[in-house]
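Aim 2 progress update. The chain analyzed this quarter is reproduced below.
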Amino acid sequence: MSHPKRIYLAGPEVFFPAAEHRAIVAEKKRLLADAGMEGVDPLDSELELDAIQSKREQGFQIFRANKALMDTCDGLIANLTPFRGVSADPGTVFEVGYMIGQGKSAIGFTMDRRSYVERAGGASVDECGHVIEDFDLSDNLMIEGALADCGGELVVARGGQSVGYFDSETFARCVSLMAGRKFQ
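Predicted structure tokens:
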């Protein structure tokens, strides 16, 4: 009997209020389970922070726990919706790179249908005179290029206005793509 493929759920949801985080993760895990896969959330680790540790030590402990959790996974679906800026959460981007660097499957999604250049102001340079990349991509070329290079893609939500950070239909499209992947 084979074990279900474990899919790491990267994204900024770990910063959301607890009830919102739990609801989103529950739906992601349900959609993955329906496709015969297991969703693994960064908060699924058995991590217990020691109150006598410095904040820096606690942060590094969280990093090590998340890295160890990713090591147990076969692939990743990352929420790359812009978070606190014009691009994806930097921790999530690291997780994408870490998994791709191990040769694991990676799919991303964004709920923001605007291009990177549109989110960055729509001009060829910013207010400091720095060039804004414009390659008709949803995010930075290194993020989308990495996903494409490993056989993945960045799934963009359908419809008119942006709909926040998650919807089941967009995530289900990611699950469908992941279900069709060959794993190491």
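Residues 1 and 36 are 13 Å apart (CA to CA). The mean pLDDT is 93. These observations will guide the mutagenesis experiments scheduled for the next reporting period.
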